Amino acid sequence: MVKAIEWKYDRVLMLDQSRLPLDVRFIECTDYQMVAEGIKKLWIRGAPAIGIAAAMGIALGSQDIKAESFDDFMERLDPIMQAMLSTRPTAVNIKWAVERIKKLLLANREEPVGRLKQLLIEEANRILQEDIEVNKAIGRWGAEFVKDGDTILTHCNAGSLATGGYGTATAPMLIAKGQGKRIQVIADETRPVLQGARLTAWELMQSDIPVTLITDNTAGALMKKGMIDLVIVGTDRTTRNGDVANKIGTYTVALLCKEHNIPFYVAAPLSSIDFHMDSGDLIPIESRSSDEVTTILGHRIAPEGVNVINLAFDVTPARYITAFFTEKGVFMPKDIKKLCRDKVDLEAIRIKP
Ligand code: MRU
After folding, report:
1. Facing residues of 151 across strands?
2. Which of 6, 96, 241, 264 could form a disulfide with 257 if both were Cys (CB 3.0 to 4.6 A apart)?
3. In the annotation, is 10 catalytic?
């Protein structure tokens, strides 16, 4: 399994995804500013992975804090948390990680500052380990919806590289393969940053899952020919009503699925569900540099000075989503909001293939 990030000898080690697959290089982040830079520059990307990176960045930054009291410590930790929160706005996982860390610290406010720093390292590693287990559970539930012989289309990269390990959208593929089902995957190249071509294709080939790469605008033609059985994508933020923000182009794939009567599934760990946000219309959508569109691997492909719109994500309305694969089971979009309740009867709302 490819490891996107780990805590090693009081450093944060990241696989530089902006260079993959041509160059497999790790970057050692020695301070929290470097971790924040890595998130912004896509050395690490994918919603769960940037949540983990933020937690590790906060743990790393906290080690240099000199504080006598809990309040003093929190005051000095705040700019570090803000630095993480200001990196990328769409995925909810950074906010989720920050809130989890604040809760942990408040529960331990009587502990000495040295112990708080240690707790932050432990928590960041726990978030990573839990993410792997969550993804395996998503995979077990999701694999029930994958049949022997299926061809699955995916968009962007919601694999090991985008998570602590195993991936969200890729987990059902890995489990289905382990169950002996003969599956194959069609990967959208995913312009402009090419996460599908550079990352998903690379990852799936390493896992011995047959994968075919297509340009984004080929998906419709393949669906029309009956060559796609189902679609599985990840999510950066899912709102209470079941709307999903994911990589730009996901909405188009969902519309194509509707036209061709193909199930469109979203693999969504609970950490990427924003239970405080009512609808996808409220999700902040990241706009990125025009260079990502006007150049490919450093080579200019568009005229100098052309206007560019480069939205990193779009929102797919809940009505186009067949179901969500989560670690608690598979659910209809209308039931997503119920998952935040402590006393929900999961068996009553789970759906079966
Ligand atoms: O811009 P990226 O590469 O961070 O976008 C990633 C995606 O859109 C993924 O599909 C999403 O984060 C889910 S990853 C499990």
Report:
1. 184
2. 264
3. no
pLDDT tens digits along 98-149: 999 999 999 999 999 999 999 999 999 999 999 999 999 999 999 999 999 9
What is the pTM assigned to this prediction? 0.97
Three-state secondary-structure class, residue 336: helix
Residue 220 lies in domain:
142-349
Q: Decide whether any atom of ligand 1 lies within 6 Å of the 45 Cβ.
A: yes
137 CB less than 6 Å from ligand 1?
no
Give yes or no for a cis peptide into 21 (omega within 30° of 0): yes
Q: Give yes or no: residues 182 and 99 share one domain.
A: no
Are residue 219 and residue 120 in the same domain, yes or no? no
Count: domains in the chain: 2
- Residue 47 tokens read as 């919603």
d(CA 141, CA 326): 7
Dig out the tokens for 312 from the structure: 């990193």
Of the three residues 88, 106, 135, the one that is the final residue of a domain is: 135
Helix (H) or strand (E) run with residue 239 in it: strand 237-239
pLDDT of residue 193: 96
